[in-house]
Amino acid sequence: MQRQLKAPVLHISETRGNPVETFNKQTTPIGRVIQVRLPFASIIWHRPLAVEVRQEDTMYRLPIYDSTSRVISSIVLTGLATVLVPFVIRTILLRRRRTT
Amino acid sequence: MITDENVQAPLVDPTEQALSKLAITASADAVFGEPVVNGDTTVITCSEVAIGMGMGSGGGPMDENGKPTGSGSGGGGGARGRPVAAIVITKEGVRVEPIFDITKIVLASLTTGTFILLWVGRLFLMRRSSKGPSLSKIRRSIGS
Fold this sequence. Notes:
The complex is a heterodimer.
Chain A: E1 10-16, E2 20-22, E3 25-38, E4 41-55, E5 58-63, H1 67-99
Antiparallel strand pairs in A: 1-3, 2-3, 3-4, 4-5
Chain B: H1 14-25, H2 28-31, E1 36-38, E2 41-59, E3 71-89, E4 94-98, H3 102-131, H4 135-143
């Protein structure tokens, strides 16, 4: 009987781009792949993670940030805080007034 | 004993096959561009790639003769990619320059601004109603 291969639902792995050698430095870009596999659906998200720089004996990593997403997240969070904080304060004050 | 005849190829459904092809598309080459050399500077572009896919099928109930009344299936998928940063390699060192998507940021700001205005307006209306009837309501009641 044939068996069906079962892949894990969530799979996170790292990928490495082609190393670039310039000025005695070896630069290798590193990415991260997040795969979500469901029986009839799947999502693959691949994003850059960092740059690995190798120079003689030293090696260091420079992180790659998604600035657009960070700015958008901060805008949305600020908006939510602007709305929720006065709403919560108002609710607390109303409750206090009712109890007194 | 395991022989070549006993070993059977694993069953992989069409979805898996399509997904494995998509996974190849989302390889490191898809995320990191080819290095562009301009004088002493080398630039590598970094993009974010997301691919999604889904399939579904279903069938209707059986009729009096035991035959299915109908069935259907469908599928869909989408992919998106956008630049995230650029790796700049110079004599001085390696640095990562972020790439801002101004359109997305402006759209998010406008949406959040509208949301804030609506909620603040609602809060003011609620405060008015909790204080008592408004001046216009009193005038209307006097007039009638």
